[in-house]
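Sequence, please.
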């Protein structure tokens, strides 16, 4: 999906570089796999919610299983199994609390949001109240995926609490 990129608000931004999974070929011999560099940026826009941007830079995108844009009919609700192809994941929770949320964002525009009561114990009663908005572009060895997560998809956090973020 390609659409104009919105201007970034002037609020705190966090950018981190991610490393390959220890079992991937790139971890054993850096620079030999298809991913050159993966950066993840997170910020909170003034209207609420969260924005997550994932950038694959200096990468051999043709060697990755990047899905094509999905038809609009497939974007209305969550899609399971996105991990089987290239997707980006975010995990949000309160430090010390067992419950957390998992977000999967695909370059196809498909998405999934899961609520967990404890580690890998899925809350079967959870139904996403809204859909994230996903923008994805590819050009010259760079793929950028930006996911706008509305406030109603974020976990409920007590006032003054920190939020623990894990990215994959």
């Amino acid at each position: 999906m390609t659409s104009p990129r919105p201007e970034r608000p002037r609020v705190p931004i966090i950018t981190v570089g991610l490393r390959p999974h220890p079992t991937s070929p790139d971890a054993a011999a850096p620079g030999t796999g298809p991913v050159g560099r993966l950066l993840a940026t997170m910020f909170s826009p003034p209207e609420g919610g969260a924005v997550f941007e994932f950038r694959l830079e200096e990468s051999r995108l043709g060697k990755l299983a990047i899905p094509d844009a999905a038809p609009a009919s497939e974007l209305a609700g969550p899609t399971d199994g996105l991990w089987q192809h290239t997707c980006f994941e975010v995990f949000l929770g309160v430090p010390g609390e067992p419950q957390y949320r998992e977000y999967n964002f695909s370059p196809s525009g498909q998405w999934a949001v899961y609520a967990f009561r404890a580690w890998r114990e899925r809350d079967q009663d959870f139904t996403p109240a809204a859909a994230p908005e996903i923008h994805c572009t590819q050009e010259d060895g760079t793929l950028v995926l930006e996911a706008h997560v509305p406030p109603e998809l974020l976990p409920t956090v007590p006032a003054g609490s920190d939020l623990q973020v894990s990215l994959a």
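The beta strands are 13-18, 37-43, 50-57, 88-93, 100-105, 111-118, 121-122, 133-139, 142-149, 164-167.
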